[in-house]
Write a sequence for this structure.
């Protein structure tokens, strides 16, 4: 899928995206998400998997799209009900979507598959492919295995400490590469698969060392993100992986 680049800032003060690596990364994810939304037909039927507080659902509803959300957390569903009609949100899982075959135009899952193991990832991807219409778009984010932010190495240390102390891990993290992600989506039944890098990963380390320095570097990095995070040589080391695919 050809990716069009557009410059815009989300609904927050422009400077706020440079205050933390989370906001910086989410800005880049939102930018890619908006590019997918721009391709949707009028009144497209959308599904938000792991809708959280319903922020993306609200944005789609404002533009006249039809959207439903599934969210396993009762607390999050209550928060989402403050933004969107509560009848549009339900408890559910990507492992067993309630929608019928070939019924949706657009499905997105932001920071969801990272918490599922490889087997559940495969099941979830097949479920998404099942309910998308032919030509429908999927948008998902994943954790890059070789990101230059030290996150995977820290996770490995935590896993080792868990084995030594017998303390259970708080959560699972599933890692992917641009190549593994593309192969897995094609195996699930998708075509026109495209996997991009987003966020120059060392910014996370800089924020831990010096917030003023990280903020200054972030402001200078953003105009060059396409090269820093998504050039063929550097995509493998980006902070986020963003996959888009058609059914």
């Amino acid at each position: 899928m050809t990716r069009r680049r557009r410059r815009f800032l989300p609904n927050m003060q422009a400077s706020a995206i440079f205050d933390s690596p989370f906001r910086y990364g989410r800005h880049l994810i939102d930018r890619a998400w908006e590019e997918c939304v721009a391709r949707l037909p009028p009144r497209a039927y959308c599904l938000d998997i792991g809708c959280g507080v319903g922020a993306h659902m609200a944005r789609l509803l404002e533009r006249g799209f039809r959207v439903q959300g599934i969210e396993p957390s009762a607390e999050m569903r209550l928060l989402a009900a403050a933004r969107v009609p509560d009848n549009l949100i339900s408890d559910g899982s990507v492992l067993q979507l309630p929608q019928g075959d070939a019924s949706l135009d657009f499905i997105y899952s932001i920071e969801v598959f990272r918490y599922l193991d490889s087997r559940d990832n495969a099941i979830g991807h097949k479920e998404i492919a099942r309910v998308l219409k032919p030509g429908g778009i999927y948008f998902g984010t994943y954790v890059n295995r070789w990101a230059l932010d030290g996150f995977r190495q820290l996770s490995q240390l935590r896993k080792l400490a868990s084995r030594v102390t017998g303390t259970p891990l708080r959560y699972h993290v599933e890692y992917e590469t641009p190549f593994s992600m593309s192969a897995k989506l094609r195996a699930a039944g998708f075509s026109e698969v495209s996997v991009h890098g987003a966020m120059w990963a060392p910014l996370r380390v800089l924020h831990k060392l010096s917030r003023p320095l990280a903020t200054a570097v972030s402001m200078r990095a953003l105009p060059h993100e396409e090269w820093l995070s998504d050039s063929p040589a550097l995509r493998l080391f980006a902070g986020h992986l963003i996959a888009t695919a058609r059914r």
